[in-house]
Amino acid sequence: MRTCTAVGVGIAIMVSASSGGFDGIGDAIGGAPAASSLQPIIIGHRGASGYAPEHTLTSYFIAVQQGAEYIEPDLVSTQDGVLVARHENEIGGTTDVESRPEFAGRKTAKTIDGQRIEGWFTEDFSLAELKTLRARERLPQLRPANTRFDGQFEIPTFDEILGLVRSLERMRGPGLPRIGVYPETKHPSYFRDIGLPLEGALLRSLKRWGYRGADAPIFIQSFEVSNLQAMRKKTRMPLVQLMEAKGAPYDFIAAGNPRTYAELATPSGLKEVAHYANAIGVDKSMLLPRDAQGALQSPTELAAHAHTVNLRVHAWTVRAENYFLPANFKQGDDPAMNGDVAAEIAALLNLGVDGMFCDHPALAVAAREAWQKASRR
Predict the structure, then answer these.
(1) Is the pLDDT assigned to residue 17 strictly greater than 60?
(2) Which H or E run includes 282?
(3) H helices within the chain, ranges in order?
(4) Which residues pair with 281 in a beta bridge?
(5) Is residue 361 within 8 Å of 48, Cβ to Cβ?
(6) CB atoms inside a 10 Å sphere around CB 124
(7) What is the Cα–Cα distance from 155 to 133, expressed in whole angstroms?
(8) Bridge-partner residues for 17, per DSSP?
(9) Hey, is 369 helix, strand or coil?
């Protein structure tokens, strides 16, 4: 019932541009508060993607209504340099482009971050063309209920997302915390190399909407290193170094730098990251590793090491379905059924994480509340 209400209201919300101040330029981060003294944040991963197709205004709206403190748009560029929200620049799996005969000739193959990918790419479409497409559920096998929304929602621009946030803040009225936004620059080296750099457009949009300074309700994230380091020279807004359990930042690979994410996650690596970032966003398996059967092993010291150098720790991604959960927390044999996601959230909170990306914000907020009550006993 709540979902249907959110969908109806979300579509009706009108967004408009707003002017604001610009962040000062600084090379140093300045003392970000130790995150362990703050309530761990719930980040609506691509909105509330467990309940509606990801990266739609409706999905973001539901996330806010369910209590997420931040919403997370992944940002890619159109042919005309406009930032839009898609998990990848290849959009065959998240839109109806494959069924659109007028765009059949746009299908192509490209090498993105060293991988050959075939499909339709945002950078080959103008914004006007992308606006004719409609979003689809990316995981229909696991989330068949979400497919009822297929074909209903547009691809939103970053400015439209910021406008939605501003509208929701006004609806909530004064005295409540601002709604945070957690944008990711997707494939920044690739977009820079084709003449569509993401960072300037991102910072200009944030300027238009009045985000500034180290206390802005913003986290800017990237799996690469060099674009974060470059943005640190232009903004004091919080930056997040994303890390995977395997592999290396693509800009390292392209430059012949042999270092890996595993090396960045060491105490010495984290000390280096702390020179340009305020937080790390890490695969939850880097905090709660699993054995070959998918059962949890002993937790790592990564969160403690990061806090030692004043880095916040945000874990990704908490999803309720059995398919994504450790063997310890699965319930039943159906991979699409929800397991004991509250237990996984509690395990992460027990490690001192400062936030987590969640596909089901309502479940995450409830689990955090239960954990907090239990901790006070």
Answers:
(1) no
(2) strand 279-283
(3) 2-12, 57-65, 127-130, 158-172, 188-193, 198-208, 226-232, 250-255, 261-264, 267-273, 302-308, 341-350, 361-376
(4) 242, 314
(5) yes
(6) 18
(7) 7
(8) none
(9) helix
Question: Average model confidence (pLDDT) for the chain?
Answer: 91
pLDDT for residue 356 is more than 60: yes
Secondary structure of residue 184 in the 3-state scheme: strand
Mean pLDDT of 307-318: 98
DSSP 48: T
Q: Is the peptide bond before 108 cis (omega within 30 degrees of 0)?
A: no
Instruction: Evaluate whether the domain defined by 2-6+41-91+155-376 bears CATH number 3.40.630.30.
Output: no
| Residue 366 CA: distances (Å) to CA of 57, 242, 268, 348, 361 | 23, 26, 36, 15, 8
The answer to whether the CB of 322 falls within 8 A of the CB of 330 is yes
The average pLDDT across 87-110 equals 98
Cα angle at 49 between 13 and 335, to 5 degrees? 155
pLDDT confidence of residue 2: 36
Summarize pLDDT for 226-245 with one digit per residue, the tens: 999 999 999 999 999 999 99
Q: What is the 3-state secondary structure (H, E, C) of 211-240?
A: CCCCCCCECEEECCCHHHHHHHCCCCCCEE
The answer to whether 145 and 189 have CB atoms below 8 angstroms apart is no
**366 residue type, one letter:** A
Residue ranges per domain, the chain?
A: 2-6+41-91+155-376
122 versus 377: the higher-pLDDT residue is 122
pLDDT at 319 over 60: yes
Cβ atoms of 342 and 357 closer than 8 Å: no
